[in-house]
């Protein structure tokens, strides 16, 4: 049975063969021009990706700070409440002492 995956693999292989044949038939000047064009496009893509990553970082930083401010505005006790739940709690030593006591001998 021939699946879509097999058909896609065949088509990609055929296209790669055509591209390799086209590249082999190009003059040195055409090859150099094509490589220069590919490098330029790759550099533009890299610059756009870097710019987008920086914009996303700024966006999420702004979102986090605005979210915290909004939470504090609508729920004034939120900071204390979050600290009580997730903050470092002092250990009173009862759990450690209970675990270290010897079991009674029978």
Describe the model:
- This is YtxH domain-containing protein.
- Keywords: Coiled coil.
- With 106 residues, this protein is mostly helical.
- It has a domain of 35 residues.
- It is 80% helix and 0% strand.
- The protein contains 4 helices and no strands.
- The longest helix is centred in the middle third of the chain and has 47 residues.
- The protein is elongated.
- About 7% of the residues have low confidence.
Average predicted local confidence, pLDDT: 82
Distance between the termini: 72 Å
Helix content range? over 70%
Rounded Rg: 32 Å
Strand content: under 5%
Task: Give the SSE order as H and E letters.
Answer: HHHH
Structural class: mainly alpha
- Give the strand tally: 0
How many helices? The count is 4
Shape: elongated
Give the secondary structure arrangement, pairings included.
Layout: H1 4-25, H2 28-74, H3 78-86, H4 94-100
Summary, kept brief:
This protein has 106 residues and is an all-alpha fold. It contains 4 helices and no strands.
Task: Name a few traits of the molecule.
106 residues; mainly alpha; elongated
């Amino acid at each position: 049975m021939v699946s879509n995956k097999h058909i896609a693999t065949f088509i990609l292989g055929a296209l790669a063969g055509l591209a390799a044949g086209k590249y082999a038939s190009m003059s040195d000047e055409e090859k150099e021009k094509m490589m220069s064009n590919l490098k330029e496009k790759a550099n533009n893509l890299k610059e756009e990706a870097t710019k987008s990553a920086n914009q996303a970082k700024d966006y999420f930083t702004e979102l986090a700070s605005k979210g915290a401010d909004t939470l504090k505005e609508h729920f004034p006790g939120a900071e204390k409440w979050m600290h009580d739940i997730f903050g470092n709690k002092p250990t009173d030593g009862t759990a450690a002492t209970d675990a270290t006591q010897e079991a009674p001998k029978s």
